[in-house]
Amino acid sequence: MLMSQLYAPTLRETPAEAELVSHQLMLRAGLMRRSASGMYSFLPLGLRAVRKVEQIIREEMNAIGGQEVLMPIVQPAELWQESGRWDDYGDEMFRLKDRHNRHFCLGPTHEELITALVRSEVRSYRQLPLRLYQIQNKYRDEIRPRFGLMRGREFIMKDMYSFDQDEQGLDESYWAAFHAYERIFRRCGVEAHPVEADSGAIGGDVTHEFMVLAEAGEDLVLYCPHCGYAANVERAQGVEPEGEGAQVELKELQEVPTPHVSTIAQVCSFLSVQPENCIKTLIYLADGKPVAALVRGDHNLNEIKLRKYLKCDVLELADEETIYRITGAPVGFAGPVGLDVPLYADYAVKQMANAVVGANKGDHHMINANLERDFSVTSFADLREAQPGDPCPRCFKALEGARGIEVGQVFKLGTKYSQAMGATFLQENGVETPLIMGCYGIGVGRTVAAVIEKNYDGDGIIWPISIAPYHVVIVPVSMKDQVQAEAAQKLYAELGAAGIETVLDDRDERPGVKFKDADLIGFPIRVTIGPKSLEQGEMEIIIRRTKEKISVPVEEVLTIIRQILEDGDVK
Ligand code: ATP
Ligand code: MG
Questions:
Q1: Across the strands, what pairs with 291?
Q2: Is the shortest distance between the CB of 446 and ligand 1 below 6 Å?
Q3: Domain of 405?
Q4: Per residue in 45-62, pLDDT tens?
């Protein structure tokens, strides 16, 4: 490719719309442009990187017996009604109607479609296992599209679905995908750590997210440096503390006026107490029935844990009216004393004494509330969001926290979709049973962004060789110099013939401008052709990642470049 013809409009300035380094660099290096919030056009360089990631994914999916398919983006509402997700998916789903007024959506994911596809064809255990995947645009009307490709409303995903006849088969599919993911991210030049996660609305129980640890990440990962336990914060398990907590003298329960003081922070400053001495009482509707959840003032309730514990389908914070009806007070003054709904408390509440609680009366709190004496709870459970410093659920050492970018996720779905949608097969013994499913996603664009987030310097992107849009850029110091131009053309032809993806910067620009662009775009190898070195029969090879410069005899340039590319930089 000649640089003079390459459509890679680079920018000197950092675009104001971009917060994250990866987003800034993808715009500056001319990899992509925004067309609407969360929607991007890939330009040639960006698309080449994307296609390389896709190719790595494809090879690894094929290697575990995956077969590529391509399903429609536009999906009929009926299928989603069958699974029950047409309503559940909510505003994140882009919905549309055709000219006959029939309802459709733009696929945010494809469990329904693939289940429908397979149910009409798979009849017997002999056709299993089956692993089908596609690489395709997905559509989610995210509340906050941001950070470029990290959270788009249109984005490329690889989604694989496995169909097995029993749990053991699912286990094999799951771990095959899990290990394929490890290879995929390693080959893309980025370390992605598998962490235990929550399956959320998709269903199923066992799931891992693959996280690239980076400050830019929107997720919080808790991990144990001692035993290797790692989980998304939503999932990380708490440990039931032993013993009763410190023995302190129980003081007298008192109601105190706290005018206009309703948040924990306000209560703490008004009463001069610490958040860990307060109990937060949250009123929820669990499948419509009111319950109260208690957590320590400095802890956050984890709604996923509460929902699981209560085994309810819908858990929502109660509205003001319900809160008033149940507590007799406006929002912010609920407390466990005298509250006539089931009370579920996080383990940490068990160890509290002389706590500050809402008084179930407007503008009032109670101080010195104590368990058993002043209130009792229906049960204790692990209900709060874990945080760094908490004990590891496996080895009890302190957990550490890190931010992560979720680049992929694998799920054991079980029979959620096959059951709801009647996708069954005949077992060897003739019994008809639902297919056992798994699903496995990778965000392609998000992976590219995460790779950049971990591979850049002040000058620009540092592509891992494996996904670099091009491998080599040849930069003659002056294209006007006949000798340089000829040497450059000759090398360009040689590299091209050797199948090495090369750009020749044939522009009539100052060398400084060309070097800057080369660094910004991040070609792994630059060959500089200057008058002096050429006189000595040499060219200069510069490695982008290390900035190492090697003077090489002209006739050896190809061999050395080949060697560098073969050695690779992805270990
Ligand atoms: P998130 O929690 O980040 O919203 P998710 O868990 O909803 O993602 P999945 O349904 O697991 O996403 O999708 C599989 C993969 O697709 C994710 O691991 C991620 O890499 C990618 N992905 C999901 N949503 C987006 C998005 N809005 N933009 C870009 N990539 C996305
Ligand atoms: Mg996910």
A1: 284
A2: yes
A3: 21-237+401-452
A4: 999 999 999 999 999 999
